[in-house]
Design a protein that fits this description.
- The protein is α+β, with helices and mostly antiparallel strands.
- Helix 2 crosses helix 3.
- A hairpin with a 4-residue loop joins strand 6 and strand 7.
- It starts with about 30 loop residues before the first helix and ends in an 8-residue tail after the last helix.
- The strands form three sheets. A three-stranded antiparallel beta sheet has the order 3-4-5, with no helix packed on it. A two-stranded antiparallel ribbon has the order 1-2.
- One of its GO terms (cellular component) is mitochondrial large ribosomal subunit.
- Keywords: Ribonucleoprotein, Ribosomal protein.
- It comes from Drosophila kikkawai.
């Protein structure tokens, strides 16, 4: 049966639904972004809303039966507001709550306690006012600074798009030698000595693609493709050919014909800038009545 199917042996294990990196522009994204995406979305984050059990087996306190331990993380909801702040791995939890013993349970949302605070980045040399949680501030103090907090934690633990964007800016600044501290060379060397060890785990390409959402990565890829293959409008190409044919015909209004011994750089720049002027001059000249008859957009004499 395997040899009779288009997919071969792969079909025997079930049909695999194509993912976002299997077709379209997603398949053209570099491996550096795919590595970041796996770290952000496919890696299990640290336990925040539950206490994981270290043992593999446990005894039930009522029945005394031995059962395996299951550390199942709670499903979290990342709201748009969570990506505008730094919540320290926390998110909204949806569940049910039984508020009275004699009544049925009701849906309930658990939201972290948020507050606005100011954080300071030594690498970027700037203060930022962001919405954080108590856990975020505790982790910043445990890591001995906001920059250490961003660089030590993985993308799955940072969660928010704002934190990942700031981490990319910090890594880019370290890669470029901390340009924000060019006026203070001594302090610049101290910052580089303290934070440059985090660059060992990233390549320049990975830093460039780090922290982008999927939509931002697609737009960046589209921009790179457009810049690599610049499309020249046909009207520019046809206009240049027309001017060249008129020059070869010896029409004085079209300019002089290039000679093989002329400099290519000077002639190319001059003709590119003077093509439009030459064509306009031809249309406005009295000796170009035949051209005005051909051109439907030219001015006709009355």
């Amino acid at each position: 049966m395997a040899h009779a199917t288009p997919q071969g042996v792969k079909l025997l294990n079930g049909w695999k639904r194509p993912g976002r990196f299997d077709k379209g522009l997603g398949a053209q994204l570099p491996e550096a972004y795919k590595k970041f995406w796996r770290e952000w979305k496919l890696t299990t984050p640290a336990a925040v809303h539950y206490i994981p059990k270290e043992h593999q087996w446990e005894r039930d306190p009522v029945t005394h039966a031995i059962k395996p331990v299951q550390n199942i993380p709670l499903p979290l909801i990342d709201t748009p507001e969570s990506h505008k702040g730094i919540w320290g791995g926390e998110a909204v939890i949806k569940g049910f709550q039984k508020r009275e013993q004699t009544k049925r349970r009701v849906p309930h949302f658990w939201v972290p306690n948020l507050r606005r605070s100011v954080v300071h980045s030594h690498v970027l040399d700037s203060y930022m006012s962001v919405v954080v949680t108590e856990r975020t501030l505790e982790q910043i103090h445990e890591c001995h600074g906001f920059d250490h907090y961003l660089l030590k934690n993985r993308a799955c633990d940072l969660r928010s798009a704002l934190a990942l964007k700031l981490k990319r800016e910090v890594l880019t600044a370290l890669l470029n030698g901390v340009p924000a501290l060019d006026a203070e060379p001594d302090r610049q060397q101290e910052v580089l000595k303290e934070y440059s060890r985090y660059l060992a785990t990233y390549t320049p390409e990975e830093i460039d693609w780090y922290g982008h959402t999927y939509v931002e990565a697609i737009r960046k890829l589209q921009k790179q493709l457009r810049d690599a293959e610049k499309v020249k409008p046909h009207k520019v190409e046809f206009r240049s050919k027309l001017i060249e044919q008129l020059r070869q015909a010896g029409i004085s209004e079209a300019g002089k014909l290039e000679k093989p011994g002329d400099k290519l750089a000077e002639s190319s720049t001059e003709h590119k800038d003077s093509d439009i002027e030459a064509l306009t001059k031809l249309e406005s000249s009295p000796s170009s009545n035949w051209l005005s008859k051909i051109n439907p957009f030219g001015k006709k004499e009355t």
